[in-house]
Amino acid sequence: MSNRLEGKVAAITGAASGFGAAAAQRFVKEGGRVVLGDIQSDAGLALAAQLGDAARFCVCDVTQEDHVANLVDTAVSAFGKIDIMYNNAGIVGAAGPIHTTPADEWKFTLDILLNGVFYGIKHAARAMIPQKSGSIINMASTAGIMGGLGPHAYAAAKHAVIGITKNTATELAHHGIRVNTIAPSGMATAMVAGLSGDPSDIDGTIARLAAASPLKGRAGMASDVANAALWLASDESGYTTGHTLTTDAGTTIGATTNAPNFVEYTPLIREAGKRGIDD
């Protein structure tokens, strides 16, 4: 299957690296055109140059509403419309025990991870409502589904992203606009590699993630998230909205590196320790 985004235009925040860059490359490969938003200008301009006439770059700090509005407007002015808004920009943010978390770090984290998504939904909706179509994709996390998987501010923001996804999906469905969320676990990106001290150590990160994956020997990659974004961006998911699509090897359903209980046959277990169907 190819050209799954033929004729479609996407805006992506946090597009210069990680999930955003992987999605941009995949979208263009599938016939789409993209506007790349990021604060990493050198990396963003280099990626736009690599992608050629199908891409534009503009500086976009998602904590600034006018930057996000400009990203959407650039898509419309450069390519005539916007079909896809991928609110991807993110950081790890404030970390540590709740009683030592500085308020300014908490607010800064939510400003990027939550308010940036709000601005993206708001301004994408502004452009999409008149055309009565569009797909908005938000970046959540398994830390937005379960507790204990991320720092407090990060987890709070990601839970909220899933909430605003559901709420806006119910509103915007009436305008033919779909809103969905992707919730990855730790994936082999520079952000995750940086948690171990070296953002460039992708190979080492792949090895560590593969060893801890419920899917034996299989690390999660940026391409896995890009593939999820591609499906949500395309017409193949045209009847899906308000959904949180996990890319987590089953961790949020309880899958672990250990085999589950009851992997070997044992006679049916009944009351008071009796076994079997017959008394």
Could you describe the 3D structure shown?
By secondary structure, this protein is an alpha/beta fold. The chain has a single domain (9-185, 220-248), classed as NAD(P)-binding Rossmann-like Domain (Rossmann fold). Helices cover 41% and strands 14% of the residues. It contains 8 helices and 7 strands. Strands 3-2-1-4-5-6-7 form a 7-stranded parallel sheet, sandwiched between helices. Helix 3 (65-79) packs parallel to helix 4 (103-128). The chain is globular. The mean pLDDT is 94.
Q: Look at the helices and sheets and give the structural class.
A: alpha/beta
Uncertain stretches of 5 or more adjacent residues: none
For the terminal residues, how far apart are their CA atoms? Answer: 56 Å
The CATH superfamily label reads NAD(P)-binding Rossmann-like Domain
Output the helix-strand order: EHEHEHEHEHEHHHE
General shape: globular
Fraction of residues in helix: 40-55%
Would you give the CATH topology?
Answer: Rossmann fold
Distinctive features:
7-stranded parallel beta sheet, 8 helices, 7 strands, Rossmann fold, 14% strand, alpha/beta
Brief characterization of the structure:
The chain is built from eight helices and seven strands; from the N terminus they run βαβαβαβαβαβαααβ.
